[in-house]
Amino acid sequence: MSSLTYLYKASRRDAPQTIVKGRLEASDPAQARELLRDGGLLPLSVRPLQTAPLAVSLPRPIERWWNSRQRARNAAARADLLDALATMLLTGLPLTEALRSLENGDDQSRPSKQDRALIGIRAGVTSGKPLSECLDALPNWFTKSEVARVRAAEQRGELAKTLASLAESSQRSVELGRRLLGALTYPLIVAAVGLGVVVFLSVRTLPELLGVLSGAGVELPRLSVAVMRFGQTLVAALPWLPLVAFGLIIAATLVASSGGAAAKLGSLLDRCTPRFIRRMRLASVCEELASMLESGIQIVEGLRLIAASHAGLGGASLRGYLDRMTASVADGEDLDRALPDPRWADTEFVRLVAAGQASGELPRVLRRIATRYERDAARRIDRLSSLLEPAVILTLAVLVGTVVMAAVLPLIRLQEVV
Asked: What is the pTM of this model?
């Protein structure tokens, strides 16, 4: 009988007021309580550890979007996990022992998300399931394409190599995302500070100064009045922000549930997306497709699995492009003839893929394209960061100057009252 992991709360037999929390493995709750008693503990509560995501009935598009968001949050942890697991397998450590050694035992009573995932994977592997099937049960951690690559690696006996490749590609994606986030963080912080200064002056200083001028019958400076009204409007809108956010979530849910509306809105968002971000996504597709082809997965199946991993409005355009490409290739067209698209595949990209098909080196060509697009995206992110810094400084100077003038003009008008 396979064992499960249980979280327990117990008191010491020799010191009943001392409460102990942790986790242990047993075949059922009765055995777990028996093990606790054998260890000198009096069990207070024993419950199974929830390792799989909760089964909630959601529309399919919403479920895909939610899993996609969770995978994005877990990207760095997934890369570290796969890299460590590949390293342990290369040293000859059995898979179950490698998974057990990766579990964090610092706080056994409150396992982390990664710990829960590892425990669930290890439980499945111990019961005789292949690793790919265990990963497929965690859609908030692994995509269908990653599961397919692991399944093919198990059949070919190259599991450690494939896990290392997955870790490397995931880590590159995380690093590009961090670069982009770092480039945008500084302007956002400056904007928040500037708006905070405007709000403070609008609700504290300017109303008193303008009230004095208004009581004395002096004409109010227009700039000061405009800044005050702007800040007070922001303050008045704050209580409504949660309702607006909730409304946007509901609207996004309804749109995502409608395939046609999601495709149209996704296409609109795609037109507003910089080209280098689209190339980052296309690089990821090329990398995954190259790895699948090297693993022996057919190109139609590979494209279908990759398309399924792009969820939400942000991925609707790319998913639609991949679906059209999959349908064309399934009907017998060559890949290079199914590629042309004004937003995703330019002429150079199509020619390179055609050359790779003709020479039988398509996976290598796709990997080289992915590497080049990633380098180009990294350069553009660095250039964006270098351009944003002086632009933000200039914007902050204008904002500070405007705020200072809005505060100084009433002081100057006060001289007329005196």
From this structure: 0.71
